[in-house]
Automatic annotation (TrEMBL):
May be involved in multidrug export. Transmembrane domains (TMD) form a pore in the cell membrane and the ATP-binding domain (NBD) is responsible for energy generation. Keywords: ATP-binding, Membrane, Nucleotide-binding, Transmembrane, Transmembrane helix, Transport. InterPro entries: AAA+_ATPase (IPR003593), ABC1_TM_dom (IPR011527), ABC1_TM_sf (IPR036640), ABC_transporter-like_ATP-bd (IPR003439), ABC_transporter-like_CS (IPR017871), P-loop_NTPase (IPR027417), Type_1_exporter (IPR039421). This is ABC transporter ATP-binding protein. Residues 21-308 form the ABC transmembrane type-1 domain. Its main location: membrane. Coiled coil: none annotated.
Length: 580
């Protein structure tokens, strides 16, 4: 139950709110349990059956007291519910913020094999289940436990034998709860896992809907989702069967047995005038026994939700316990833009190298073009440059300092990237350029967009730079999205720029527009370019041709063409369109 201790740690940050709610809860239970005593006083003291008289005045006084008690009970109940639900909401809000903040700090490697839908499920679904536990289940458990304990003490003072009978059943109920938790744990765990799998599949299906529809994969996707859904329903049914077999039926049997004992005690008491129970006392016992079992019904009814919340907490804390990127490296400080790869080797799985013996020297302000066939290692070099991963062997040096000694945040503050298919967020054009950085003025963002050739795009926007864009920029062309990405890179004024295949898959007119943007953004910046179109990188200071994770050729365009190697062959083939 370590996860429950950690949840308690979150709750302790709002301990005074929880303490206030619990105090109101005690008062609420106390006032609720006064009602049967008032009824007993009316029955035993003011309704005299043998004399055929009813004392109305004291009865009305007691009924007035009963009404006042009910009003106070309602007031205490309202405020304790509000306070406990609010405090539970604050706990879960902090937990969600902690999880989301922690996810931002996790290394890219963590997400390689983890579907995005699973992370979404942890932050949303699982924390929502925990919220239900704090706001509904735990308050109900505390009220129920307090009610059962108080009633047990009261019944003992009225009739010892009835109290003993009720005490006998409490260990039995506790044993039942332990057994229930044992068998329900696996069902709940599997249920949460299938729920996460379904979230992941829904997320992937929505993102990949064009591919699914074009390749007529709808039926196969439906079948895969149906299997996950069937497994989810199967575990849900198993939980329902477990509850049905061991739930209220068991308690109903206990209650019937106690009522049978009560009838025996009541009947026996008439044989001995000294031990005879009054009608009022009998009423109180019956009322309290009924009230005794109602909280137990509530506990059993909510036990499954409690178990679901416990399993959800395990999942959330697994994500929180995932090792984040180290934050204790030093600052980069002044940086001219000089970058060197020295004997760098790297593998994603720790076994097979995707890069081997990479040596690249880029002086401040130079442009380095990475070319080669798919899978040659171009993107892996960029991943190391951005410190999404660290090399297994060798060093990457920024102004002579090993990047492993520099914090990722400090490093990335000097860098910007333009992707082949830039990501556009739901929000204004301004938001997408400055990424909510209020230090960047509206004028600076507008100037950056105009500088990279986006004046026409800006002019077409109804509300200018404040125009709202759709999710992923679905109403914009690829070239327009790239212009926004170039403006984003320019306005952050980086020392190092990464252009990841920015001119692939576009028409000639758009390519000219992008080429202009590239020249503007890369001016006086150390630039790394990944490109398939070799015509776009012929003016680079250095071209690195990669084959199977190794440098096959290296030099500028003229020297590589004179050498007549693979680069020359690839360039001639692209220019003439014929194999060489």
């Amino acid at each position: 139950m370590a996860e429950m201790k950690r949840l308690l740690g979150y709750a302790m940050e709002y301990k005074w709110m929880f303490a206030s709610g619990i105090m109101l809860m005690v008062l609420m239970v106390g006032f609720e349990l006064l009602g049967p005593f008032i009824a007993m006083m009316i029955l035993d003291n003011h309704i005299k059956v043998g004399e055929g008289s009813i004392e109305l005045a004291p009865i009305f006084e007691l009924l007035g007291l009963f009404f006042a008690i009910k009003v106070l009970h309602a007031i205490f109940s309202y405020f304790q519910t509000v306070i406990l639900q609010k405090s539970g909401g604050l706990v879960v809000r902090k937990m969600r913020n902690d999880v989301f903040s922690h996810v931002q700090k996790l290394p890219i490697r963590y997400f390689d094999d983890l579907p995005a839908g699973r992370v979404v499920a942890r932050i949303t679904n699982d924390t929502e289940t925990i919220l239900e536990m704090f706001s509904v289940v735990l308050p109900m458990f505390m009220v129920s436990a307090l009610t059962v304990g108080t009633i047990t003490v009261i019944i003992f003072t009225i009739n010892v034998w009835t109290g003993i009978m009720m005490l006998i059943f409490i260990p039995v109920i506790i044993l039942w709860m332990v057994l229930y938790r044992k068998y329900s744990n696996d069902y709940n765990h599997n249920k949460r896992e299938r729920n996460s799998d379904m979230n992941a599949m829904i997320n992937e299906s929505i993102n990949g809907m064009p591919v699914i529809q074009v390749f007529n994969r709808e039926r196969q996707i439906e079948e895969e989702f149906g299997e996950l859904n069937d497994d989810y329903v199967k575990n849900s049914k198993s939980l329902i069967n477990l509850e049905s077999a061991t739930g209220e039926n068991l308690l109903e049997s206990f209650r019937s047995l106690i009522f049978a004992v009560m009838v025996y005690i009541f009947a026996s008491s008439f044989l001995d005038d000294a031990q005879a129970l009054s009608v009022g006392t009998m009423y109180v016992l019956v009322d309290y026994i009924t009230r005794f079992f109602n909280p137990l019904y509530n506990i059993i009814g909510q036990l499954n939700i409690f178990e679901e919340a416990r399993v959800a907490a395990v999942k959330v804390f697994e994500l929180l316990d995932a090792r984040s990127e180290a934050q204790d490296e030093g600052e980069l400080g002044e940086f001219t833009g000089d970058i060197r790869f020295r004997d760098v080797s790297f593998s994603y799985d720790g076994v097979e190298n995707v890069l081997a013996d990479i040596n690249i020297e880029a002086a401040a302000g130079e442009t380095v073009a990475l070319v080669g066939h798919t899978g040659s290692g171009k993107s892996s070099i960029i991943n190391l440059l951005l410190r999404f991963y660290d090399p297994d062997r060798g060093q990457i040096l920024f102004d002579g300092r090993d990047t492993k000694e520099i914090s990722k945040q400090s490093l990335r503050q000097r860098m910007s990237i333009v992707l082949q298919d830039p990501f556009i967020y739901s929000g204004s054009l301004l938001y997408n350029i400055r990424l909510n950085n209020e230090e960047i003025s509206v004028e600076a963002a507008s100037d950056a967009l105009v500088s990279v050739g986006g004046e026409e795009l800006l002019g077409r926007m109804d509300q200018g730079i404040h125009t709202e864009l759709t999710e992923r920029g679905s109403t914009l062309s690829l070239g327009e999205r790239q212009l926004i990405s170039f403006a984003r890179a320019l306005v952050f004024n980086p020392k190092v720029l990464v252009l990841d295949e920015a001119t692939s898959n576009i028409d000639s007119e758009t390519e000219q527009m992008i080429q202009h943007a590239m020249k503007v953004v890369s001016r006086d910046r150390t630039t790394f370019i990944i490109a398939h179109r070799l015509s776009t990188v012929q003016h680079s200071d250095q071209i690195v041709l990669l084959e199977d994770g190794r440098i096959a050729e290296q030099g500028n365009h003229e020297s590589l063409m004179r050498s007549g190697g693979e680069y020359s062959r690839m360039y001639e083939m692209q220019v003439t369109g014929k194999p060489v």
